[in-house]
């Protein structure tokens, strides 16, 4: 016997079985695999983040997440009337967005939170091969925008061209399955970068030159450590939200996804 969940008919909401609603949030076997892989990614990235020489393995991805971070600053800056003068990435995985105008109390936190948002979106898309393919076009557009704003930085050109080549190569492996796991890795890296960088700058090292320090000066209350922890918590929420959205939105088994003719490379 089914238990039914409903609102009054006057609200115009259809009846829906509780079991069906619960099943949407319950991960399938394929989805559980992706969740495990995402957790493994997070652990591996955290371990090798500062290990000498080994950290070079994730070096290009670290620079890419810096690009997401700087793009967050730039995007909110444009929305608040700022003029973007340049976006730069340097070999130390740092970055700088130079702008005139804008609203500082919006543009300053947009870096960490923007990269977390992008990471969560990529994680959600990684639960579906078709979505993973579509999001690569979005990434391509993002690459072009970043190249335009950072066109004086040769490292940015090399990084994004290499990343584009890697994505194209993964597109042809197992009809996009490899691309799916690559998108998941980039998404996890983006969220983890935000969390780790906030901890590294504000909790462990207590570096003064950070977005949180500048934000604390603009707002005029609370220390930068508090703002950093708040942004860290929000980033964790984004990470969890990406997984939950992926579980709910993409329920097709992997076998059906691989049989999909959408941009089929076979």
Automatic annotation (TrEMBL):
InterPro entries for this protein: Peptidase_M50B-like
Keyword entries, A-Z: Membrane, Transmembrane, Transmembrane helix
Superkingdom as given in the UniProt entry: Eukaryota
Entry protein name: Peptidase M50B-like-domain-containing protein
Entry annotated with the keyword Ribosomal protein: no
Coiled coil regions in record: none
Native organism: Ceraceosorus guamensis
Pfam families: Peptidase_M50B (PF13398)
Transmembrane residue ranges: 34-54, 105-127, 134-150, 156-174, 179-196, 229-250
